[in-house]
Write a structure and sequence with these properties.
311 residues
Length: 311
């Protein structure tokens, strides 16, 4: 027998669907009412000892007889302590209300589906429980298919028909409700927990930085010095590498000049039968010659000073 679509189930169980919708509506109203009660002007009665610590707290603007009786049996006479009324405005807990408004109904639906599926497996076997798995493909009888230019298409799946909403629900019903519910519950919990967790981490981080600021300053200074030393060593290494490449290039140029002069002298000797008087191309290292000149000047000055001292 073919499985019924969601639209057929809704038509066949109108009263049950109305009861479920009304129940969920009442649950949502109750959740909203609890959220409203937890917000607004809130008051607490604090009982403070001589050291200024709160030893007893009661919500409300007055202490009832039961509160006084319980306090005096535990801590002694209330006249020996200071009673203080504390009031503050609590904002509406939007995140808590939003998470509860989505998570509680979805959780109830998943719990009910799990209980029904477990009961079907326990009492009727696994095959009977398979009818509750919304992930299984529905088998339509041949009489419900039409042929023609549209091919094998269900009547309510055709675009523009009155059953378009039913086709969307049927497509959604093919997905596993437990997987959908898991993702919904996970999203609600993350929405509820992550903002508070980020706030807590931010406050804890700021307090840690303030309490151990000298440690973090020293750590930052050490890291900066290490980075500066690393960059300096990298600069020195690059400089030495460039100097080495320059010396190698100078030697290569000098060898090229010597080779050219040797070839030119050989050709000159062949042409004239005499040795070449001078090199046709001369190589000179300006920096090297300047350094040698400076050294010569310094040596000359030192020798003069020595002669003067001897005289």
């Amino acid at each position: 027998m073919a499985n019924k679509s969601w639209s057929d189930l809704i038509k066949d169980h109108k009263i049950l669907m109305i009861i479920i919708i009304v129940s969920f509506f009442l649950i949502e109203i109750e959740i909203f009412a609890v959220a409203v009660m937890k917000s607004g002007r809130q008051s607490w009665m604090n009982v403070i000892d001589d050291s200024g610590e709160i030893i007893y707290q009661v919500k409300g603007s007055t202490l009832t007889n039961f509160n006084k009786y319980y306090f005096e049996n535990t801590f002694g006479s209330i006249d020996d302590y200071q009673v203080k009324l504390v009031s503050k405005d609590v904002p509406f807990p939007f995140r808590g209300w939003f998470a509860a408004a989505i998570g509680i109904p979805v959780g109830l639906v998943l719990l009910l589906a799990f209980i029904l599926k477990a009961a079907m497996v326990l009492f009727y076997g696994k095959r009977a429980a398979g009818g509750l798995d919304l992930n299984e493909s529905e088998q339509e009888p041949a009489g419900e298919r039409i042929s023609g230019s549209d091919g094998d298409v269900k009547p309510h799946m055709k675009f523009g028909t009155a059953e378009g909403l039913g086709s969307i629900i049927d497509q959604i019903s093919r997905l596993n409700i437990f997987i959908i519910g898991f993702f919904i519950i996970s999203g609600v919990l993350l929405y509820l927990v992550i903002p508070d967790m980020l706030t807590f981490l931010a406050k804890a981080g700021i307090e840690t930085l303030l309490n151990f600021k000298w440690f973090f300053i020293a750590l930052f200074a050490g890291g900066f010095m290490l980075f500066a030393w690393f960059m300096y060593m990298k600069y020195q290494l690059a400089k030495k590498s460039m100097d080495a490449q320059t010396e190698i290039r100078k030697y290569e140029i000098k060898m090229e000049y010597a080779k050219f002069n040797a070839q030119a002298a050989l050709e000159y000797k062949r042409a004239t039968g005499k040795d070449a008087p001078v090199a046709l191309l001369e190589y000179s290292d300006v920096d090297y010659e300047e350094e040698q000149d400076k050294k010569g000047v310094e040596q000359a000055e030192e020798s003069k000073q020595e002669k003067n001292s001897i005289k």
